[in-house]
Design a protein that fits this description.
alpha/beta, five-stranded mixed beta sheet, five-stranded parallel beta sheet, 16 helices, 10 strands, 14% strand, binds 5-phosphoarabinonic acid
Length: 427
């Protein structure tokens, strides 16, 4: 089985082998407490076994619903925020054509409910006016403000356009089994629904219908995605030296030496939303009790021309984890140019990816020389299977690393603060 790999050999100038070895017993204890459900937040460990517990009937139901929605619509609006949105977007953006959006799969999937921008909604309503569209509304609590506002707006538009009965067939709700306003409304209106398990928190929910239905609607292979997660689970769950354990140990060792910010970097623009998903996973899981590594993201080489200066020479508090994709799907060669004004004819005949790979290597050397410890997660290619592996790898490492930090990695009490103020200000 080919698999993603983790390489932390380039942190040896920053953390000694002894310092790393000393952390393994703690990491193994953290893994044990996750598996036995004895640590903090143990009510929310459903994600650990999701890949092996999802049944072929459940996957078939998701695929059937996706096919029905695709037959009725040309655009699906996926409404959700945070964990109810980022996983699906991460997979869809990673696998879709960059310019034909998702239309290369015969379906366009767009997102709403992840902001409260008035112009965004004006433009969205205008865009949808003449489209055959449907809605996939996702909220575990069923009471989150941003998706609730978006759903009000788009439900009204859809019902006015196609009538209440047809609208009811184009709306799917993914929410709690029994609680929350969205559950009540979905039951009242008779929408098709999927359940988010009680013991799976939003940011760990990509392998539930929350992620799987939008991904299936966009036309990508959810079985392959789940298969990847199964493979990574098998490789890591009982292994006391797994790559998930190594990653948790490496970043914890660096954090304890004062590296308080982790940059997740990529050299492939399709990975931008994988980074956004990762930022939520680690930020919400670890940033509490005045502790935790601050997760940040950079897209290279783009951001080497903006953030590159800071990374090279700013405050030495950064560690960097690069997601490196082995093989692109296509080949593009750099042409020769008779005038050669840019003096780049020495690159003629080379593949664009060869230049990209040298940029990646050159950046790694420069950053390590400049005092930024560098780790690498290597994906053989950007496919649903390897993304499934990557999700499980990061989730398990997050559970271990959060436990090593001494926090509850599965709650997010701090998120309430802005909501309380907003509602008080709105009277
Ligand atoms: O990880 C989490 O639990 C949160 O980020 C939620 O996913 C996010 O706030 C959306 O919540 P809900 O699905 O209840 O609308």
């Amino acid at each position: 089985m080919d698999s993603i790999k983790f390489d932390y050999s380039k942190i040896c100038n920053f953390v000694t082998k002894e310092e790393m070895i000393a952390l393994y017993p703690e990491a193994r204890q953290a893994l044990k407490s996750l598996k036995e459900g004895t640590g903090k937040g143990s009510d929310f460990l459903g994600w650990l076994n999701l890949p092996v517990e999802i049944t072929s009937e459940q996957l078939a139901d998701i695929e059937k619903t996706a096919a029905e929605l695709r037959a009725r619509t040309q655009v699906m609006v996926v409404i959700g925020i945070g964990g109810s949105y980022l996983g699906a977007r991460a997979v869809i953006e990673a696998l879709a054509d960059s310019f034909h959006n998702y239309e290369n799969t015969g379906m366009k999937v767009i997102f709403a409910g992840h902001n409260i921008g008035e112009d965004y909604y004006h433009e969205l309503i205008h865009y949808l006016q003449n489209k055959e569209f449907g809605i996939c509304v996702i909220s575990k609590s069923g009471t989150t403000t941003e998706p609730a506002i978006a759903f009000r707006l788009l439900k009204e538009l859809l019902e006015a356009k196609v009538g209440k009965e047809e609208a009811g067939k184009r709306i799917v709700a993914i929410t709690d089994a029994s609680k929350g306003a969205l559950r009540t409304l979905a039951d009242q209106e008779g929408y098709k629904t999927f359940v988010i398990p009680d013991n799976v928190g939003g940011r760990f929910s990509v392998l539930t219908p929350v992620g799987l239905l939008p991904i299936a609607i966009a036309g990508f292979d959810i079985k392959e995605l789940v298969q990847g997660a199964i493979e990574m689970r098998k490789a890591c769950i009982d292994d006391e030296k797994s790559i998930a354990l190594e990653y948790a140990v490496a970043r914890t060792a660096l954090y304890r030496k004062g590296y308080a910010v982790e940059l997740l970097a990529n050299f492939n623009p399709k990975l931008h939303y994988i980074t956004e998903w990762w930022k939520q996973l680690y930020g919400e899981s670890e940033g509490k009790a005045n502790k935790g590594i601050f997760p940040a993201g950079v897209d290279f080489t783009t951001d080497l021309h903006s953030m590159g200066q800071y990374i090279q020479q700013g405050v030495r508090m950064l560690m960097e984890t690069v997601i490196s994709v082995g093989k692109p799907h296509y080949q593009v060669q750099i042409p020769s140019d008779a005038a050669n004004l840019d003096k780049l004819n020495f690159l003629a005949g080379k593949r664009v990816d060869e230049v990209n790979k040298m940029a990646e290597l050159g950046t790694q050397i420069a950053h390590v020389d400049g005092g930024v410890p560098n780790m690498k997660v290597c994906m053989p290619a950007l496919t649903a299977q390897y993304i499934g592996q990557l999700f499980y790898f990061f989730e398990l490492a997050c559970g271990i690393s959060g436990s090593m930090l001494g926090v509850n990695p599965f709650d997010q009490p701090g998120v309430e603060a802005y909501k309380n103020n907003m509602f008080a200000l709105l009277d």
